[in-house]
Amino acid sequence: MQTNVLYEKIGRVALLTLNRPEKLNALDYATNDRLLSLLDEVEADDEIGAVILTGAGERAFSAGGDIHEFTQSIRRGTEEAVREFCRRGQRMTARFEAFPKPVIAAVNGIAFGGGCEITESAHLAIASDTAIFAKPEINIGIPPTFGGTQRLPRLAGRKRALELLLTGDTFGPERAYELGLVNKVVPGEELLPAAFDLAERILRHSPLAAARIITAVTRGINATIAEGLLIEREQFARMCPTADVLEGLDAWIARRTPTYLGR
């Protein structure tokens, strides 16, 4: 039986692979739920310090929500459609966005709809030079439902986001880079190596500090500057009593490489 999300532990990195290539890795409900379950497992594993998410096959990262499935939810009525489709997808992207370990999207092909929204919610993203993006929900008469109306304007700016949301036009990886949707564009064969390289550059540091940075940015990005500075102080205060802080300071003073234990 095919597993709709593959999980491989490679050193300190959890590699999650959307595994419905025959459906362009569309996000059916089972895939969404398995992603949430795997993220719970990864969070509880102290040996894992970062997550890389990619898609199986050569064509797609994810083509978005499974239209055949959520059409049935819509036919059953608004309440079921919101509960089964919209809330489920929003929980998934919110989980990626607030996940305490860095999440890197390795976008290897089509990233439409929900696939684009996962990319928006991931902390970092690298795209293949063959990746293609779109916000095509308007083509089937709905707005984005996994956070795309909220995150893309925050990344790209209101007018540039609205152009993509209102036209449904596709755009390539260089445009995605220009919009701030991805951090880097690389040749396809270099995609996963580049994602693992980025993960390793992060994993040199304290996992506790990484978690505090993610929390400060995620919580503070929509706050006033005064509220954001309070959030920043709170995250600093949480780090002060940890062994990792003393290790980092002692290593700097002694001009040696720190060894962080995550406590």
Secondary structure layout:
Blueprint: E1 5-10, E2 13-18, H1 29-44, E3 50-55, E4 60-62, H2 67-75, H3 78-98, E5 103-107, E6 110-112, H4 114-121, E7 124-128, E8 132-134, H5 148-156, H6 158-167, E9 170-171, H7 173-179, E10 184-186, H8 191-203, H9 207-220, H10 225-239, H11 243-254
Parallel strand pairs: 2-3, 3-5, 4-6, 5-7, 6-8, 7-10
Antiparallel strand pairs: 1-2, 8-9
Helix pairs in contact: 1-3, 2-3, 3-4, 4-5, 5-6, 9-10
- Residue ranges: pLDDT <50 for 5 or more in a row? none
| Count of individual helical segments | 11
Structural class call reads alpha/beta
Specify the helix fraction band: 40-55%
Shape: globular
Largest sheet, described in full?
A: 6 strands, mixed
How much is the radius of gyration in Å?
Answer: 19 Å
Average pLDDT number: 96
Strand count: 10
How far the N terminus sits from the C terminus, by CA atoms, comes to: 40 Å
**How large a portion of the residues is in β-strands, by DSSP E?**
15-25%
Q: List the strand order in the largest sheet.
A: 1-2-3-5-7-10
Q: What is the H/E string?
A: EEHEEHHEEHEEHHEHEHHHH
Throw out a few tags for this protein.
263 residues, 11 helices, 51% helix, 4-stranded mixed beta sheet, alpha/beta
Describe it for me?
With 263 residues, this protein is an alpha/beta fold. The chain contains 11 helices and 10 strands. The chain has helices spanning 29-44, 67-75, 78-98, 114-121, 148-156, 158-167, 173-179, 191-203, 207-220, 225-239, 243-254, and strands at 5-10, 13-18, 50-55, 60-62, 103-107, 110-112, 124-128, 132-134, 170-171, 184-186. The protein has a 6-stranded mixed beta sheet, sandwiched between helices. A 4-stranded mixed beta sheet has the order 4-6-8-9. Helix 1 runs parallel beside helix 3. The protein is globular and about 65 Å long. The N and C termini lie far apart (40 Å). The mean pLDDT is 96.
